[in-house]
Design a protein that fits this description.
Helix 1 crosses helix 2 (46-64). The protein folds into two domains: 13-185, NAD(P)-binding Rossmann-like Domain (Rossmann fold, 3-Layer(aba) Sandwich), CATH 3.40.50; 194-312, N-(1-d-carboxylethyl)-l-norvaline Dehydrogenase, domain 2 (Orthogonal Bundle). The chain has helices at residues 21-32, 46-64, 81-85, 99-112, 128-131, 166-178, 195-211, 217-225, 228-232, 237-243, 249-257, 275-289, 294-311; strands spanning 13-17, 36-40, 75-77, 90-93, 118-121, 141-145, 155-160, 182-185. Strands 3-2-1-4-5-6-7-8 form an eight-stranded mixed β-sheet, with helices on both faces. The longest helix has 19 residues, at 46-64. The radius of gyration is 21 Å and the shape is globular. It contains 13 helices and eight strands. It is α/β, with parallel strands linked by helices and 325 residues long. Bound molecules: 1,4-dihydronicotinamide adenine dinucleotide and the ligand C[N+](C)(C)CC(=O)CC(=O)[O-]. Residues 124, 147-148, 196, 199 line the site of the ligand C[N+](C)(C)CC(=O)CC(=O)[O-]. 1,4-dihydronicotinamide adenine dinucleotide (NAI) is lined by residues 17-23, 41-43, 46, 94-97, 101, 105, 122-124, 146, 148. Residues 14-186 form the 3-hydroxyacyl-CoA dehydrogenase NAD binding domain. Catalyzes the NAD(+)-dependent oxidation of L-carnitine to 3-dehydrocarnitine. InterPro entries: 3-OHacyl-CoA_DH_NAD-bd, 3HC_DH_C, 6-PGluconate_DH-like_C_sf, 6PGD_dom2, L-carnitine_dehydrogenase, NAD(P)-bd_dom_sf.
């Protein structure tokens, strides 16, 4: 892979390809951190939807602190993919999660982006090895997996494929850090990376409990928000469980509770996502929403995340990493 045109902390112009929930969230994040952003999305109503998403996110972004010069006015909508990446210094792809689409789109982006520019995919689980098959320069393609909404949840998981140049992985990790993200750089590909592998285990069990009538959607959500979720916002599951061992820490915890790992609690296959389970999940979520619209829930979620980030000293200004451009 030829060298990237600039150092990770000198990037000024970012291209976001695909502008739905996640692409739009990336756009809001990069704008708030003071970048010039060019977006491209083939949907006819993409610009309206994207500007609506950015406007809805902006109060939250003002609350956590904008980089100097940050403005929604620094967003440009491109007419073509080629135009979007023509002078980009970094490209974030957030198109639908379909392997064939990702393969050909990443090859198109590779053909159009300036030499050496790193191209990251937001994929939730495809290994880059499976997506970089059609590109001429696969060395610059890697995964940068964000969390919803990317403008508030700090984590990005960065991992390359078999043909990715390790220098591109290093460059992307440094770039995301300069853009005020919290980065886990993985040295090998795992299906679902780290966080989604963990989330999917929990999700699989939740769907089993709803499908079998053992718990309602509300029970499942309360069991996390009123229970382990409160601890997980600042202490991960390993250290949290070490405290379950009292003075004996993780050693005693494993000796005491380890044998229960053999109990048949969590060895289920994924449940069949049939109509009845789909209906139970959709109806349960409608009930849990209690008449609140998606826009209201998004605003509530954003405020909740900001409160947690502030309480635990993790807002960009509290970390002294503004990523100002
Ligand atoms: N929704 C989530 O919570 C998360 C999603 N992701 C990943 O982000 C990516 C995007 O997912 P969402 O934003 O949820 O989907 P979405 O459906 O909200 O947005 C996808 C966007 O891509 C556009 N699009 C369709 N064909 C395209 C093409 N050929 N080139 C460029 N754009 C195209 C669509 O018009 C749409 O605006 C996926 O890879 C997904 O796995 C990652 C983390 C979280
Ligand atoms: C639902 N999802 C698998 C697309 C979620 C993610 O990939 C990350 C997140 O935001 O939790």
């Amino acid at each position: 892979m030829p060298s990237p045109p600039c150092a990770p902390d000198r990037v000024r112009r970012v291209a976001c390809i695909g502008a739905g929930v996640i692409g739009g969230g990336w756009v809001a994040h990069f704008l708030a951190r003071g970048y010039d952003v060019t977006a491209w999305d083939p949907a006819p109503d993409a610009e309206t939807k994207l500007r609506r998403l950015v406007d809805a996110a902006w109060p939250a972004l003002e609350q956590i602190g904008l980089a100097e010069g940050a403005s929604p006015d620094r967003l440009t909508l491109a007419a073509t993919l080629e135009e979007a990446v023509a002078d980009a210094e970094f490209v974030q792809e957030s198109a639908p999660e379909k392997l064939e689409l990702k393969r050909s789109l990443l090859a198109q982006l590779d053909a159009a982006a300036p030499e050496g520019v790193v191209i990251a995919s937001s994929t939730s689980g495809y290994p880059m090895t499976d997506m970089q098959t059609e590109a001429t320069d696969p060395g610059r393609l890697l995964v940068g997996h964000p969390f919803n909404p990317p403008y508030l949840i700090p984590l990005v998981e960065v991992v390359g494929g078999e043909k990715t140049d390790p220098a591109a992985v290093e460059w992307a990790s440094a770039f995301y850090k300069a853009a005020a993200k919290s980065v886990i750089t993985m040295d090998r590909e795992l299906p679902g990376f780290i966080a989604n592998r963990l989330q999917e285990a929990l999700w699989r069990e939740a769907l089993h409990m709803v499908a079998s009538g053992e718990a309602t959607v509300q029970d499942i959500d309360d069991s996390i928000t009123e229970g382990p979720g409160l601890r997980w916002a600042f202490m991960g599951p390993c250290l949290t469980f070490a405290l379950a061992g009292g003075e004996g820490g993780m050693g005693h915890m494993l000796d005491h509770f380890g044998p229960s790992l053999k109990s048949p609690w969590t060895r289920l296959e994924a449940p069949e996502l049939d109509d009845s389970l789909r209906t139970a999940m959709v109806d349960g979520c409608d009930e849990a929403a209690g008449g609140r619209s998606i826009a209201q829930l998004v605003a509530e979620r954003d405020q909740g995340v900001i409160n947690v980030l502030r309480a635990t000293g993790r807002l960009p200004d509290q970390r002294n990493e503004g990523g100002d451009k």
